[in-house]
User: Which sequence fits this backbone?
């Protein structure tokens, strides 16, 4: 009997390739659950719901509001600004601390050690850790929660890694607004960790009360590897990894930095920057650094300089926001991109001077307004 005849008779074709039909399997993911999830993901809360959640200290709502701040969608930007405006009266009640240092100095380990010290004393800590973004892919690892595992599980701590997106030399464009929301959520200490390169230190210094510079000892030429400008910004220098065989090296480095700081002009606040040593792993010297920060804040408040400094920072960020808005508006202007490409080629080919090209483009931009 042929294959066709067997199939017509209802008999199975005798073959090793013939596969028996098994039991029907259910969907690996429940479509009803997926549908609900998608609706929930797309739905935005009302402004009052966001504000209420933030004031109640709801971390989920706080995180969602920060995501709105970081978004470039026009709808999200408008909503974020309204949330910030409503949270503003509840902000300003924290100590803002900027932390910077060269890669490898142990910023994340230090922040976790200092953070645990603060929360054990009853403080509520928000850590805004800015991750460097790739100039090529614009991607960012956002691995601070994995590096600060103990602090990430602390109920009195909130860690928010954000991609720098190349803005302000590594400081996320919306960090200052994020500080406002964290303060409104009840966090009374805010850490801002910089990527430790370029212009980021200047940006962080302009939004914090206390600026801490972390340094390593034992390189042999400690003072050669750091810019004078960063040294002048520092309210205190902490020499990390001062444990084991490094204790002596750290003490020698401390003396060198103290001598160097005496050469700088006095600060406007009258504060004399301190140099301390610490071991983040052994959690030694952390209490002394926290005492120094509190002494600094108290001195500034006694001399009525604390509020003056914050007002100056608010003014600075108003102008920064104007500059950024003008820049964004310029590059979004219709026809500017095409003209930039054309002039870019002319400049590279030596057919036009760079300054002349920029002047013509800018004049063309303003003539359209």
Assistant:
């Amino acid at each position: 009997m042929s294959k066709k005849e067997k199939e017509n008779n209802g008999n199975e074709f005798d073959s090793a390739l013939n596969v028996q039909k098994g039991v029907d399997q259910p969907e690996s993911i429940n479509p009803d659950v997926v549908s609900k999830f998608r609706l929930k993901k797309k739905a935005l809360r009302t402004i009052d719901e966001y504000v209420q959640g933030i004031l109640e200290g709801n971390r989920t709502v706080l995180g969602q509001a920060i995501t709105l701040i970081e978004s470039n969608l026009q709808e999200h930007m408008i909503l974020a600004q309204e949330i910030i405006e409503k949270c503003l009266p509840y902000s300003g009640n924290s100590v803002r601390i900027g932390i910077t240092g060269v890669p490898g100095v142990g910023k994340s380990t230090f922040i976790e050690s200092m953070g645990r010290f603060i929360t054990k004393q009853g403080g509520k800590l928000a850590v805004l850790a800015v991750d460097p973004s790739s100039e090529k892919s614009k991607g960012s690892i956002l691995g601070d929660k994995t590096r600060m595992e103990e602090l990430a599980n602390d109920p009195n701590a909130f860690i928010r890694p954000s991609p720098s997106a190349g803005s302000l030399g590594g400081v996320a464009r919306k960090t200052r607004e994020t500080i406002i929301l964290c303060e409104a959520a009840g966090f009374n200490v805010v850490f801002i960790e910089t990527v430790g390169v370029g212009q980021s230190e200047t940006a962080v210094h302009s939004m914090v009360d206390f600026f801490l510079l972390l340094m390593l000892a034992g390189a042999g030429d400690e003072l050669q590897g750091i810019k004078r400008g960063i040294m002048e910004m520092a309210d205190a220098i902490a020499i990390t990894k001062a444990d084991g065989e490094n204790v002596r090296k750290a003490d020698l480095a401390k003396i060198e930095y103290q001598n160097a700081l005496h050469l700088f002009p006095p600060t406007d606040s009258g504060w004399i920057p301190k140099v301390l040593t610490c071991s983040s792993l052994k959690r030694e010297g952390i209490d002394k650094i926290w005492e120094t920060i509190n002494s600094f804040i108290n001195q500034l408040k006694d001399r009525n300089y604390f509020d003056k400094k914050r007002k100056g920072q608010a003014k600075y960020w108003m102008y920064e926001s104007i500059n950024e808005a003008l820049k964004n508006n310029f590059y979004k202007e219709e026809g500017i991109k095409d003209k930039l490409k054309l002039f870019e080629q002319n400049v590279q080919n030596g057919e036009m001077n760079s300054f002349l090209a920029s002047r013509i483009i800018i004049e063309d931009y303003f003539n359209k307004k």
Remarks:
- Residues 33-40, 133-143, 220-225 have pLDDT under 50 and may be disordered.
- The chain has three domains: 40-90, 91-303, 317-368.
